[in-house]
Structure formats: C-alpha cells, structure tokens
Amino acid sequence: MTTVTEEQTTEDLKALAEQAGRDLEDASALEILKWAADTFGKRFCVTSSMEDAVVAHLASRAMPGVDVVFLDTGYHFPETIGTRDAVEAVMDVNVITLTPRQTVAEQDAEYGPKLHDRDPDLCCRLRKVQPLERGLTNYVAWATGLRRDESPTRANTPVVGWDEKRQKVKISPIARWTQDDVDAYVAEHGVLTNPLLMDGYPSVGCAPCTRRVLEGEDARAGRWAGSAKTECGLHG
C-alpha cells in the first residue's frame, strides 16, 4: 500500500492515478474508496451535488468522518438543501458547504439578472467551477458520483484517473454502476436521496437550468434544456 506524502510530485500522483485506474477497474466501489482512504487519508474528499448520498454513504463506510464537499450555488431547489442537511444530520461525514464569492444579488448587480439564461457557461464558472477549485486546494484526491451510463460524454470515465485541470487524483467509484445498481444500493442501505428524483427529475442541478425529463428522454435531458450545453464544467 502506497501512502501519499508531501514529497510526491505531480508526476508521481499522475502515475499513481493511472496505475490505480488499471488495477482497480474491476474492484468494487467500496474497495476503490478504501484504497483512496488508505492512500490519501485526510487529503481526500468526496464531492456531492446532493442528488443522492450514495457515494457519500460508501465513503463513510471506507473512511468514517470523511469530508463531503457540497457547492451551494444560491440557485438550488429547496429539496437539494434539505437533502444536504439530512445527510449532515444522519451520516458519519463532515459536510463542507462551498459558496461563490458573490451572492446571487451581487452577481446580478455586476452581470445583470439571469446570467444563467444569457451565458450559462459563465454562470457555472462563477458559481460552481471557481468555488470548487478553491475548496479543493487542501486535497490531493477527490471522489465524484460520475457514471459511464449517464451520458456519452461520461462513457469513458475511469474509476481512478488524473484531473489534468486541477492536477489532482479524481476517483469515480461507481463509474461502472448502472441506475439499477444505484437503486439497489439505495434500497439495501436506506440511503438518502433527493425527493426530486421521484418527481420527474432524474438529474438535479440548479433550479433555473433544470426541468423535468419527458418519457424516453436521456436522464440528463432536463439539464440546460434547449441549449447545446451538457456539462457544468466541473468534469471537463
């Protein structure tokens, strides 16, 4: 077992991530997270959009008290904030809420109201990407809930890979899972989920940029509907 030290270079970490991606491709999600906990310790965190708490729950089993980072954009559905509060109350995790430098009102004053309608990429950058980059400063590795079956842009997601943009190890322990796997885990362990998942929102983002999905549509079709945008920028 390799434990990451302060002396290891970016190239060392990149090599470690790529080797782990190969070695752990067929490992269970819990095994992947136990590897992360053993390797990175307190320099590892989980990020959660509070769509569900599956990865946070898995990580709490591998590393009780693990940091769970949540981005409060100021545009979330009340149900999403409620899910965060419930996760914090009942799970063995340390929820860390990140916020943008500007409130929604301050952003509106500088850029004009409803920036999300006029320039969603800039809005995501200001309210998601930049706060996450600041929030991840003290971590060497972070875990996400990305799955290969969610969209074509995520089809090649490694279970452990290298986040070139942030120069960090990026872990996607449920990358190989299907929605059925997620549902089974939620049912078996009584994991908290966002109530909106049962109300026509299979993918939950900021309220102004998320709508219900119609029958037969892709699970992420309700995100930035009517535009070519498919990702917020956190994952590429």
Put the structure in a nutshell.
37% of the residues lie in helices and 11% in strands. The model has no long low-confidence stretch (mean pLDDT 90). The chain contains eight helices and six strands, in the order ααβαβαβαααβββα.
Described by the principal axes of the CA atoms, the overall outline is globular
Uncertain runs: none
Most strands sheet: 6 strands, mixed
The helix/strand series, from N terminus to C terminus, equals HHEHEHEHHHEEEH
How many angstroms does the end-to-end distance come to?
30 Å
> What amount of the residues lies in strands?
5-15%
Query: What value does the average pLDDT take?
Result: 90
Spatial strand sequence of the major β-sheet: 3-2-1-4-6-5
Radius of gyration: 17 Å
Structure description:
37% of the residues lie in helices and 11% in strands. The chain has 236 residues and is an alpha/beta fold. Strand 5 (160-163) and strand 6 (168-171) form a beta hairpin. The radius of gyration is 17 Å and the shape is globular. The two termini are 30 Å apart. It is found in: Cytoplasm. This is Adenosine 5'-phosphosulfate reductase. [4Fe-4S] cluster binds at residues 123-124, 206, 209.
